[in-house]
Amino acid sequence: MGVFAASGRRAGVALGVMGMVVPLSIALGSPAQAAPSCTKDTGPYQKQVEKFLGRPVDGRQSRGDCLAIQKFQTTHGISPNIGYAGSATWGVMKLMNEQKAAGKNPNKAGKCPVNKGRIACVDLTRQLSWIQDGRKLVFGPVPVRTGRDKFETRTGLKKIYWRDIDHVSDLYDVPMPYSQFFDGGQAFHSIGGSVWSPPGSHGCVNMRKSDAKKYWSLLKKGDDVFVYGRKPGT
Length: 234
Prior knowledge:
Helix content is about 20%, strand content about 25%. The protein is of the alpha+beta class. The protein has a five-stranded mixed beta sheet with strand order 5-4-3-11-6, covered by helices on one side. The longest helix is centred in the middle third of the chain and has 15 residues, at about 85-100. It is globular and about 55 Å long.
């Protein structure tokens, strides 16, 4: 979503919040919030979370388990970050596993058009994006953060119609570096927190800075963008 300022300058509406991690893997960055006390409770996804984090898989909460889970939650803006292996935490981990499984063939199912030349593909279901030229993968796949419930990134074939490397949203007063608008106020742009931070953007396709910068160098005005699928939870 977006608006036009009185000056005629377009303002993109994407919540530039939380996210920054290494490609399709786990890395620990600056804490998104102060860590409260660890819970002693065993969560419903204890074994899955233990396995994901490389912890002993016994299905019982330990101090070490809690600290590892809590660190993951804090890094990715998952609240409450008390080390509980609940649905929100496992949901993010499950998504990361699905992204990793895409490997270097994200368009294996053929859902993104291969007859458009260079095109930026956005898979809402897996929260992945990549650039391809016909059947050739040019860059990616990379994790993205799309619109939350009620602010979904709109699906369909679009074109990049405006680019602004130092864009700032007039509506939210939020920096949107490397903005490439493709549908009203919806754009690719970088954010400063975790691209896995729930619940999502206000419609834009949030990216890590390095990925947004690469998209900026590889795409131009008039290039196609294809958005498909459905983000979990929307």
